[in-house]
Write a structure and sequence with these properties.
CATH class of chain B: Mainly Alpha
CATH topology of chain B: Helix Hairpins
Oligomer: heterotrimer
Number of helices of chain C: 21
Helix content of chain C: over 70%
Largest sheet of chain B: none
Low-confidence stretches of chain C: none
Structural class of chain B: mainly alpha
Chains: A mainly alpha, B mainly alpha, C mainly alpha
Largest sheet of chain C: 2 strands, antiparallel
Radius of gyration of chain C: 22 Å
Number of strands of chain B: 0
Number of strands of chain C: 2
Number of domains of chain B: 1
Shape of chain C: globular
Order of helices and strands of chain B: HHH
Structural class of chain C: mainly alpha
Low-confidence stretches of chain B: none
Chain lengths: ~150, ~120, ~500
């Protein structure tokens, strides 16, 4: 996949950070507003896909390391599992942080509330972002026999 | 009387099934699967809609909910649809990857060409 | 300590940590996959022992102590509900999956992309375990899709061959359409009754059974028959199962079509719809498909020249037996015949998982050593691969139902109950077995025939492939030695627990 013209590249350079910030906002406020880990992660992955489309596969190869991404994806999953195990003395997925935890048990509607949900959103956001970027990069790399 | 959103949902599902049965292009088949799923999502979402005392419901947002003073639409169907969309994305990306591979091996996206396995 | 959540937690941990462990090296990754599946096997055997010794339905609520909502009298949380049938299925799944992982260490040695392979095989196991444990109908759908997506990817794992890709695409489209039907059925049920917990759904349905629920049942049964490979829609199975790597074929044929198809049909027909629907009609519908499946599957197996394809068609036929037992169990619900038929179906599910896993592993060993699975080129294999041939003979004899092996007991229960229920069905079952015998005798005749040149160069596979095969042979012989003890002690109680619909409902709803 070759890169695109100057206009697309410049626009992409300007918008990729903004898309990333917006996605991070969606992830961080997942327990308060619509959205959450998956939507925010998909938005950030949109920035990665825009990078791939605008700058081409060769540029992407320099910034994309398969091992890093799949490890990060595993880490996201492990964080999700670990957080859901926190309240295991009561039940799997018991929201211990919300009921008796040291933090994340503020007033509903504030950022530091909802127990394990913000952490889970972060974990899922990480997993979705890395997973979608990996999938897109893999699909782009598959086309190499044409070139 | 059947509400119109249910009719729309079933129309979408039938359109998807029709395209699934009668189209021959792999990409169109993938789209057909997506259309069927969209119809089911619309059906699920509309189950969560409720009208209480003729007040329009709001979305299930918890920030500033106390000030809205309106019934909330059912949050559970939205969670179900979200889960289903995530699954749909997985199936979609896998389908596209397989289609690219099929194009590499068969040089065509026609389903009728994918008939080498017999028995 | 409640072992039930660990059945899911351990595979999840394995799946998520496998990419990190894989950074250490290839050996570490294989050892980790083996360790995780072994630990799952241990946990499920403890679960089976717990459920079997107490004969009580275990209920585990996610996120709270009780499934009931705060201040309301109905369950709002996701529950996992395990009766004896679920526990037996979970144990079988973990057992076969463990052996498949052990087998693939040598079998897949020459393939690339193995980090994905081991992740996917654990995801497949996780999905199946989730399906058999869950007591929530949407949770079931999620696990079904986890299992299905992993199996699509594994069928198309060898993406440098056209065979894998074509089979993967066919499997994926048919499977996704079936999944959409199942989701539509679940959505209709949710729209009608406003709940997703199977037990509460059953209770509400018993009070008010509407047309929408009937349509939902039709969609669910239709989609699940797709997934289990019943006859009008079995073509994907005959393409997908031979095209996958053999260790995966063993899991697909042995486990996936049962956990994702037949088990769920049983669960939905008995536990969810059992109190509302006319079980006699539903039973006869399933019996009709079962008879078709039984005859067509076994008959098609006879004419195949590809060994793995023959085994896949034989799987279709054996699914017919299981569905037949299930259908009779539904149609004759509440009688002794129905209980025997259900017990026979459960028993045959377990037996067939073990036998078909063994047979596919044998086919994989032949494919690995000779590079072909065409029966015309395999004559005289017994001379150069005697151990593999012995394993095949045991598996084939068991699947035909020869007396000293495990297939005999389950098939006997099915013949007995179908003959008691309706002699015509008994005759159909016997005809199916005749076809099945013809198919396997043909393979055996090929194996024991005059050796061809190609076969003379073959040698036995390595220890890592032979050992899982011989563990399965041992299991077949061991289960064959105590057939009536197993059926009296485990299978009949499982059938009666499955038939005890009220008990399943009350386990969640509390003793109201």
């Amino acid at each position: 996949m070759s890169d695109m013209g100057l206009i697309v590249k410049t626009t992409a350079r300007a918008t990729i950070p903004l898309i990333g910030i917006f996605g991070s906002y969606i992830v961080a406020h997942g327990h308060l507003t619509p959205g959450g880990g998956f939507q925010g992660g998909a938005t950030i992955a949109g920035a990665g896909i825009l990078f791939l489309l605008a700058f081409g596969l060769n540029e992407m190869r320099k910034h994309y390391n398969h091992h890093v991404y799949s490890s990060l994806e595993g880490l996201g999953g492990l964080a999700f599992l670990g957080v859901s195990m926190l309240g295991f003395s009561v039940a799997f997925f018991y929201n211990k942080l919300w009921h008796s935890g040291p933090f994340f048990n503020g007033k509903p509607g504030t950022l530091l509330s909802a127990g394990y949900l913000p952490i889970m959103n972060l974990a899922v956001g990480l997993k979705v972002f890395t997973g979608l970027v990996s999938a897109m990069a893999a699909i782009a790399l598959y086309r190499r026999w044409r070139e | 009387m059947i509400p119109f959103q249910f009719i729309t949902a079933f129309l979408l599902i039938f359109m998807g099934v029709y395209a699934f049965l009668y189209k021959r292009n792999l990409l169109k088949l993938i789209l057909a699967l997506d259309v069927i799923d969209s119809g089911i999502h619309l059906l699920l979402i509309s189950f969560g809609y409720r009208l209480e005392n003729n007040v329009l419901p709001t979305a299930p947002i918890y920030t500033g909910y106390e000030t809205v003073k309106a019934p909330m639409v059912g949050p559970l169907p939205q969670a179900l649809v979200l889960t289903s969309i995530v699954i749909g994305v997985c199936v979609l990306s896998l389908a596209v990857a397989l289609t690219i591979n099929a194009y590499r091996h068969y040089g065509s996206l026609d389903v009728n060409k994918l008939r080498r396995l017999r028995g | 300590m409640n072992v039930l959540p660990f059945v899911i937690i351990i595979p999840l941990l394995g799946v998520f940590s496998l990419p990190l462990v894989g950074l250490v090296g290839k050996k570490a990754r294989e050892a980790w996959a083996l360790l995780i599946s072994g630990a799952t096997l241990g946990v499920t055997s403890k679960l089976l022992y717990n459920v079997w010794s107490t004969k009580e339905t275990l209920v585990y609520t996610l996120g709270a102590k009780s499934p009931m909502g705060q201040g309301v009298g109905f369950p709002v949380r996701i529950v996992w509900e395990v009766d004896l049938l679920s526990a037996i299925m979970a144990f079988t799944i973990a057992f076969v999956a463990f052996l498949a992982v052990a087998y693939s260490i040598e079998y897949m040695r020459h393939d690339t992309g193995l980090e994905k392979y081991y992740v996917l095989i654990l995801v497949l196991e996780l999905g199946m375990l989730g399906i058999v444990l869950t007591g929530d109908i949407f949770n079931f759908y999620v696990f079904l899709e986890i299992m299905s997506i992993a199996s699509y990817a594994l069928v198309a794992f060898r993406n440098d061959t056209w065979e894998g890709i074509e089979a993967g695409i066919k499997y994926m489209f048919v499977g996704s359409l079936a999944s959409s039907f199942i989701l539509l059925g679940i959505a209709l049920l949710y729209g009608q009754y406003g709940t997703l917990t199977m037990a509460y759904l059953a209770e509400k349905m018993a009070a008010n059974f509407t047309l929408t629920a009937k349509i939902a049942l039709a969609f669910l049964i239709g989609g699940l028959l797709f997934k289990s490979g019943a006859v009008p829609v079995h073509m994907w199975l005959a393409d997908a199962h031979p095209a996958a790597p053999s260790s995966i074929s063993a899991m697909l044929s042995g486990l996936v079509i049962k956990a994702g198809g037949v088990y769920v049909i049983a669960r939905i027909a008995f536990s969810v719809f059992g109190m509302a629907v006319n079980l006699r009609t539903l039973g006869w519908v399933i019996i009709f498909f079962a008879c078709l499946t039984l005859i067509v599957g076994n008959a098609m197996a006879v004419v195949q020249t590809d060994m793995k394809r023959l085994l896949a068609f034989s799987s279709v036929g054996q699914i017919g037996y299981i569905l037949l037992g299930l259908g009779i169990g539904l149609a004759a619900y509440g009688t002794k015949v129905g209980e025997i038929a259900t017990a026979g179906a459960i028993y045959h599910t377990v037996n067939h998982a073990i036998m078909k896993a063994l047979l596919f592993m044998v086919a994989g060993a032949v494919l690995h050593e000779l590079g072909t699975k065409d029966l015309n080129e395999l004559s005289g294999l017994a001379k150069t691969m005697p151990k593999t041939t012995f394993a095949f003979i045991v598996g084939a004899a068991a699947i035909i139902g020869l007396p000293p092996l495990n297939g005999f007991a389950s098939k006997w229960l099915l013949y007995e109950s179908s003959a008691l229920f309706n002699p015509f069905l008994g005759a159909i079952a016997i005809i199916g077995t005749a076809f099945c015998t013809a198919a396997y005798i043909r393979v055996l005749y090929t194996f024991l025939g005059r050796p061809s040149e190609r076969v003379m160069k073959a040698k036995e596979p390595g220890m890592a492939m032979l050992l899982p095969m011989f563990i399965l042979v041992g299991a077949i012989i061991l289960m064959g030695l105590f057939p009536w003890q197993i059926s009296k002690g485990v299978m009949i109680p499982a059938a009666s627990m499955l038939a005890n619909i009220k008990g399943y409902v009350l386990a969640v709803m509390g003793g109201v």
